[in-house]
Protein backbone atom coordinates (compact mmCIF):
# COMPACT_ATOMS: atom_id res chain seq x y z
CA UNK A 1 0.00 0.00 0.00
CA UNK A 2 2.84 2.40 0.81
CA UNK A 3 4.40 1.69 -2.61
CA UNK A 4 1.25 2.84 -4.40
CA UNK A 5 1.08 6.08 -2.39
CA UNK A 6 4.77 6.75 -3.03
CA UNK A 7 4.37 6.14 -6.75
CA UNK A 8 1.36 8.50 -6.94
CA UNK A 9 3.34 11.16 -5.08
CA UNK A 10 6.30 10.85 -7.50
CA UNK A 11 3.96 11.09 -10.50
CA UNK A 12 2.26 14.15 -9.03
CA UNK A 13 5.65 15.79 -8.42
CA UNK A 14 6.69 14.88 -11.92
CA UNK A 15 3.54 16.46 -13.36
CA UNK A 16 4.10 19.52 -11.17
CA UNK A 17 7.72 19.76 -12.35
CA UNK A 18 6.58 19.47 -15.97
CA UNK A 19 3.95 22.16 -15.43
CA UNK A 20 6.55 24.43 -13.79
CA UNK A 21 9.03 23.88 -16.63
CA UNK A 22 6.29 24.59 -19.17
CA UNK A 23 5.41 27.76 -17.29
CA UNK A 24 9.06 28.85 -17.39
CA UNK A 25 9.23 28.22 -21.14
CA UNK A 26 6.05 30.24 -21.72
CA UNK A 27 7.44 33.03 -19.55
CA UNK A 28 10.65 33.12 -21.60
CA UNK A 29 8.55 33.26 -24.78
CA UNK A 30 6.55 36.19 -23.41
CA UNK A 31 9.78 37.97 -22.42
CA UNK A 32 11.06 37.61 -25.98
CA UNK A 33 7.82 39.06 -27.34
CA UNK A 34 8.07 41.97 -24.91
CA UNK A 35 11.69 42.71 -25.76
CA UNK A 36 10.98 42.62 -29.50
CA UNK A 37 8.08 45.03 -29.05
CA UNK A 38 10.22 47.36 -26.93
CA UNK A 39 13.03 47.46 -29.48
CA UNK A 40 10.57 47.93 -32.36
CA UNK A 41 9.30 51.02 -30.53
CA UNK A 42 12.87 52.32 -30.32
CA UNK A 43 13.36 51.73 -34.06
CA UNK A 44 10.15 53.65 -34.68
CA UNK A 45 11.45 56.55 -32.56
CA UNK A 46 14.74 56.55 -34.47
CA UNK A 47 12.81 56.66 -37.75
CA UNK A 48 10.76 59.61 -36.52
CA UNK A 49 13.91 61.49 -35.50
CA UNK A 50 15.57 60.78 -38.85
CA UNK A 51 12.44 61.91 -40.68
CA UNK A 52 12.30 65.11 -38.66
CA UNK A 53 15.95 66.16 -39.04
CA UNK A 54 16.61 64.98 -42.60
CA UNK A 55 15.12 68.03 -44.39
CA UNK A 56 16.89 70.47 -42.07
CA UNK A 57 20.16 72.31 -42.74
CA UNK A 58 23.09 69.95 -41.87
CA UNK A 59 24.95 72.75 -40.06
CA UNK A 60 22.01 73.41 -37.73
CA UNK A 61 22.51 72.69 -34.03
CA UNK A 62 20.67 69.82 -32.40
CA UNK A 63 20.84 68.02 -29.08
CA UNK A 64 21.35 64.33 -28.53
CA UNK A 65 21.13 62.28 -25.36
CA UNK A 66 24.27 60.16 -24.94
CA UNK A 67 24.43 58.03 -21.81
CA UNK A 68 22.08 60.31 -19.90
CA UNK A 69 23.97 63.47 -20.90
CA UNK A 70 22.49 65.99 -23.34
CA UNK A 71 25.15 66.85 -25.93
CA UNK A 72 25.06 69.66 -28.49
CA UNK A 73 26.00 68.57 -32.01
CA UNK A 74 25.16 69.43 -35.60
CA UNK A 75 22.60 67.53 -37.65
CA UNK A 76 25.47 66.47 -39.95
CA UNK A 77 27.16 64.71 -36.98
CA UNK A 78 24.03 63.25 -35.44
CA UNK A 79 22.30 61.82 -38.51
CA UNK A 80 24.85 59.01 -39.25
CA UNK A 81 24.97 58.00 -35.58
CA UNK A 82 21.18 57.78 -35.31
CA UNK A 83 21.08 55.78 -38.56
CA UNK A 84 23.72 53.35 -37.26
CA UNK A 85 21.81 52.92 -33.99
CA UNK A 86 18.62 52.23 -35.92
CA UNK A 87 20.36 49.61 -38.08
CA UNK A 88 21.87 48.00 -34.97
CA UNK A 89 18.45 47.79 -33.33
CA UNK A 90 16.99 46.21 -36.48
CA UNK A 91 19.78 43.63 -36.35
CA UNK A 92 18.94 42.87 -32.70
CA UNK A 93 15.27 42.44 -33.67
CA UNK A 94 16.28 39.93 -36.34
CA UNK A 95 18.29 37.92 -33.79
CA UNK A 96 15.46 38.06 -31.25
CA UNK A 97 13.00 36.83 -33.89
CA UNK A 98 15.31 33.87 -34.56
CA UNK A 99 15.47 33.16 -30.82
CA UNK A 100 11.68 33.45 -30.68
CA UNK A 101 11.26 30.83 -33.40
CA UNK A 102 13.69 28.50 -31.60
CA UNK A 103 11.76 28.98 -28.35
CA UNK A 104 8.45 28.23 -30.13
CA UNK A 105 9.93 25.00 -31.51
CA UNK A 106 11.29 24.10 -28.07
CA UNK A 107 7.86 24.62 -26.51
CA UNK A 108 6.16 22.60 -29.25
CA UNK A 109 8.62 19.72 -28.73
CA UNK A 110 8.12 19.95 -24.96
CA UNK A 111 4.33 19.83 -25.42
CA UNK A 112 4.63 16.78 -27.67
CA UNK A 113 7.13 14.97 -25.42
CA UNK A 114 5.03 15.43 -22.28
CA UNK A 115 1.62 15.27 -23.98
CA UNK A 116 0.65 18.71 -22.71
CA UNK A 117 -2.85 19.88 -23.51
CA UNK A 118 -3.87 23.51 -23.05
CA UNK A 119 -7.00 23.86 -20.97
CA UNK A 120 -9.48 26.29 -22.50
CA UNK A 121 -11.01 29.11 -20.51
CA UNK A 122 -14.69 28.83 -19.49
CA UNK A 123 -15.93 30.90 -22.44
CA UNK A 124 -14.03 28.81 -24.98
CA UNK A 125 -15.17 25.57 -23.34
CA UNK A 126 -18.84 26.60 -23.62
CA UNK A 127 -18.41 27.34 -27.32
CA UNK A 128 -16.72 23.99 -27.94
CA UNK A 129 -19.10 21.63 -26.07
CA UNK A 130 -19.77 19.47 -29.12
CA UNK A 131 -16.15 18.28 -29.35
CA UNK A 132 -15.46 14.92 -27.63
CA UNK A 133 -12.34 14.54 -25.51
CA UNK A 134 -9.98 11.63 -26.19
CA UNK A 135 -8.58 9.20 -23.65
CA UNK A 136 -4.93 10.27 -24.04
CA UNK A 137 -2.97 10.73 -20.83
CA UNK A 138 -1.01 13.94 -20.38
CA UNK A 139 -0.42 17.04 -18.31
CA UNK A 140 -3.12 19.69 -18.40
CA UNK A 141 -1.96 23.29 -18.29
CA UNK A 142 -4.19 26.37 -18.27
CA UNK A 143 -3.77 29.32 -20.63
CA UNK A 144 -0.79 31.59 -19.92
CA UNK A 145 -3.06 34.32 -18.51
CA UNK A 146 -4.23 32.00 -15.73
CA UNK A 147 -0.69 31.02 -14.72
CA UNK A 148 0.41 34.48 -13.64
CA UNK A 149 2.63 34.94 -16.70
From TrEMBL:
<dbReference type="Pfam" id="PF01920">
    <property type="entry name" value="Prefoldin_2"/>
</dbReference>
<dbReference type="GO" id="GO:0006457">
    <property type="term" value="P:protein folding"/>
</dbReference>
<keyword id="KW-0143">Chaperone</keyword>
<dbReference type="GO" id="GO:0051082">
    <property type="term" value="F:unfolded protein binding"/>
</dbReference>
<keyword id="KW-0175">Coiled coil</keyword>
<feature type="region of interest" description="Disordered">
    <location>
        <begin position="118"/>
        <end position="149"/>
    </location>
</feature>
<feature type="coiled-coil region">
    <location>
        <begin position="79"/>
        <end position="113"/>
    </location>
</feature>
<protein>
    <submittedName>
        <fullName>Probable prefoldin subunit 2</fullName>
    </submittedName>
</protein>
<comment type="similarity">
    <text>Belongs to the prefoldin subunit beta family.</text>
</comment>
<dbReference type="InterPro" id="IPR009053">
    <property type="entry name" value="Prefoldin"/>
</dbReference>
<dbReference type="GO" id="GO:0006397">
    <property type="term" value="P:mRNA processing"/>
</dbReference>
<dbReference type="InterPro" id="IPR002777">
    <property type="entry name" value="PFD_beta-like"/>
</dbReference>
<dbReference type="InterPro" id="IPR027235">
    <property type="entry name" value="PFD2"/>
</dbReference>
<dbReference type="GO" id="GO:0009409">
    <property type="term" value="P:response to cold"/>
</dbReference>
<dbReference type="GO" id="GO:0016272">
    <property type="term" value="C:prefoldin complex"/>
</dbReference>
<feature type="compositionally biased region" description="Basic and acidic residues">
    <location>
        <begin position="118"/>
        <end position="134"/>
    </location>
</feature>
Amino acid sequence: MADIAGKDNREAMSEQAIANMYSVLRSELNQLYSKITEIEMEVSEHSLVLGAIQPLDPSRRCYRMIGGVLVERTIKEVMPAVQRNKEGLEEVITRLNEALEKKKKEIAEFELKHKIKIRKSDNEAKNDNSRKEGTAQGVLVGPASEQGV
